[in-house]
Specification:
Number of helices: 6
Number of strands: 16
Distance between the termini: 20 Å
Structural class: alpha/beta
Helix content: 25-40%
Shape: elongated
Radius of gyration: 23 Å
CATH class of the largest domain: Alpha Beta
Oligomer: single chain
CATH superfamily of the largest domain: Zn peptidases
Length: about 325
């Protein structure tokens, strides 16, 4: 970054997970590019190497990380080659805890985006050149159920830890509301048992995606009341381990969207807007600052070892962002 004429920005940066650069004119009242640097690992699966097909590029984290880094560098290199970079107010916010729900970098992003004029989050858009103007938030809950061990075939105990939890899965998922755009799902059920014993401990993850914080708070209370159980047989615990705020559609996005659409019409680049069920760093941007997400190419099989991106859209998104930054 230093070779391209960028300098490190350390004001308001408190987390070791955050790296911020700015142009010589600074990032204040400028455009902030948000770039994730980490990628989820899959220790239980074979390593997938990068490979190319005529229309797709494959690789672990290629859509959720590598494409963002590529788009950012190509845009900055383009402005540097055109000798425009030193005249622009541009900042780059890179962070390494996307896989942890931005637990450490979220506050820094809110502070730094608050002094920016607008924010672009370099996360995958949808097919057809679609950028994101709205994303749901996410809350992740960890649930633990324990009971005294019981032997296989024992008729004295009615429920082991798994059976007790399984009876409540339907109740949990019925908390979802399509009208309120709120979903609740059970995932990652792990059991522990001794030899010749039925499961005595269960650990599960429950995900809740939402748009409205008030609705999410209500469902969270219901979830916690379901597992506020303490008896001689069963012990339960529930904790909120991750909170990702939603990105809500706002009228202040209109000016930026109009400028992006004009560029796309001029150069024949596909463009449209969409919303997403998945959270991103856009939810942590300061209130009142225009933010557009999905500024990298669309992908398939996101967050899996078979993740891939469209080769054509990679070029299109680089061109779109480069033209936009050049016009500012």
């Amino acid at each position: 970054m230093l070779k391209l004429g960028m300098r490190k920005y350390e004001t308001n940066v408190k987390s070791d997970s955050v790296f911020v650069w700015e142009t010589k004119k600074g990032l204040e009242d400028g455009i902030l590019l948000v770039v994730p640097l980490d990628v989820q690992e899959y220790s239980d699966q074979a390593h997938r190497t990068y490979r190319r097909e005529p229309e797709w590029l494959f690789g672990n984290g290629i859509a959720t990380r590598s494409a963002a880094i590529t788009c950012m560098f190509k845009c900055i290199e383009t402005l540097h080659a055109m000798k425009q970079l030193h005249n622009k107010c541009i900042g780059i916010f890179a962070y390494t805890d996307e896989g942890k729900g931005m637990r450490y970098s979220g506050t820094d992003l809110k502070n730094i985006s608050g002094i920016s004029r607008k924010v672009f989050v370099l996360q995958p858009g949808n097919e057809g050149g679609k950028v994101m103007v709205q994303r749901r938030g996410l809350r992740k809950f960890s649930i633990i159920v324990e009971r005294n061990p019981i032997r296989v075939g024992s008729k004295k105990a009615k429920y082991d830890a798994y059976e007790w939890f399984a009876d409540r899965i339907n109740t949990i998922e019925k908390l979802a509301s399509e009208y309120d755009r709120l979903d609740v799902s059970v995932s990652n059920i792990n059991l522990s048992s001794y030899s010749m014993m039925r499961p005595h401990q269960l650990e599960a993850i429950v995900y809740m995606s939402y748009l409205n914080n008030n609705n999410a708070n209500l469902i969270e209370k219901k979830l916690k009341s379901m597992f506020a159980v303490s008896s001689r047989v069963f012990k339960t615990a529930i904790s909120n381990v991750e909170v990702r705020p939603p990105m809500l559609k706002s009228p202040i996005q209109k000016e930026t969207l109009t400028e992006l659409e004009r560029i796309c019409l001029c150069y024949g680049i596909p463009f449209a807007t969409d919303s997403s069920l998945l959270p991103s760093a856009a939810g942590d941007v300061a209130e009142g600052v225009p933010v557009i997400c999905g500024m990298t190419p669309s992908g398939k099989n996101l967050y899996t070892p078979d993740e891939c991106i469209s080769r054509a859209e990679l070029l299109q998104k680089i061109l779109l962002l480069s033209f936009y930054l050049s016009d500012q």
